[in-house]
Amino acid sequence: MMGRSPRAAVMLALLLLLCFLSGATARTFTIINKCGTTIWPAVTPSPSDSFGGGGFELKSGQSVVYDAPPAWSGRIWGRTDCAFDGSGTGKCGTGSCGPNLKCSGASGDPPASLAEFTLATPDFYDVSLVDGFNLPITVQPVKGHGPGNCSAAGCDGDLRDTCPDELAVKGAGGKTVACRSACDVFNTDQYCCRGKFAGPSTCPPTPYSKKFKEACPTAYSYAYDDPSSLFQCSGADYVITFCSNSKQSVCTYHNNKLVCNGSGRYLPAMSAAMTLLLLFGSVALQFSV
Ligand SMILES: *[C@@H]1O[C@H](CO)[C@@H](O)[C@H](O)[C@H]1NC(C)=O
Ligand SMILES: *[C@@H]1O[C@H](CO)[C@@H](O)[C@H](O)[C@H]1NC(C)=O
């Protein structure tokens, strides 16, 4: 910072503080398809200028990067076996949000595995199978820091392979394409945590929810699942991977720089400060001269 006036330094410090307090840094979301087939990710709510307007095609092995809108809260899921025409109208085997490729405000038909986010200070995120399962999802924060537990959320396995017959949704050729929740199938107070089963202390896991938990140990398997399925993290980017597992290391592009988790070389606080310095340094200088 050679030759910079004290006033510039004060301005810079103020800007930095403001940015940290308001959590104003853009969160980069990287969405990766590691499934063997094309999927159609869906995002709701979604403004027209992010997340492909709420839905897009993602071929096997492809990934996309979006900046989430500031203070965005919403959900991301995958749709399978879709056919859309040139105008973006069609239907899907699982996860449909009506007839549209771009879901904007519409939520998906269960069963669908969901990644849920509340971007704030700190961010909250989870993977939920409360509305059933259609694809393995993992959410991995990159370069995030506490307070809170910045751990990976989601699945290590594919519940379509282990779904009990009475919950299975079969597609063409009798293949299991999704697994419904026990609440959805049997609609009893016990499975839906209602009546005398309402509340976390009176709605214990069932053999069905345990099956979900086996495939996705850090996801909500039913309404009052272990609170350890809800995670908190500050200053993170997020990588959402379909058909992977939470033990894989992940990378994200942030300000045109590749940042990976688990490398041990990344000092979160330092790097966040440096990024902000680069972003706002010139702005602060302009104001002060
Ligand atoms: C963070 O969450 C993971 C997954 O639930 C858990 O294994 C780990 O013990 C938690 N860490 C802390 C410090 O709570
Ligand atoms: C980062 O990657 C490692 C594997 O290298 C994995 O074990 C860990 O859970 C990942 N951390 C997060 C926060 O996703």
Any overview of this molecule?
With 289 residues, the chain is α+β, with helices and mostly antiparallel strands. It has one domain: Thaumatin, CATH 2.60.110.10. The protein is built from five helices and 16 strands. Strand 5 (83-84) and strand 6 form a beta hairpin. Helix 1 packs across helix 5 (268-288). The radius of gyration is 21 Å and the shape is globular. It starts with 5 loop residues before the first helix and ends with a helix. One 2-acetamido-2-deoxy-beta-D-glucopyranose binds next to loops.
Radius of gyration: 21 Å
- Can you say what the CATH homologous superfamily is? Thaumatin
Q: Helical residue percent? A: 10-25%
Number of helices: 5
Low-confidence stretches: 18-23, 263-289
> The CATH topology, please?
Thaumatin
Major sheet: arrangement of strands: 3-1-14-9-10
Shape label = globular
What small molecules are bound in this structure?
2-acetamido-2-deoxy-beta-D-glucopyranose
Report mean pLDDT, rounded to a whole number: 85
Strand residues, percent = 15-25%
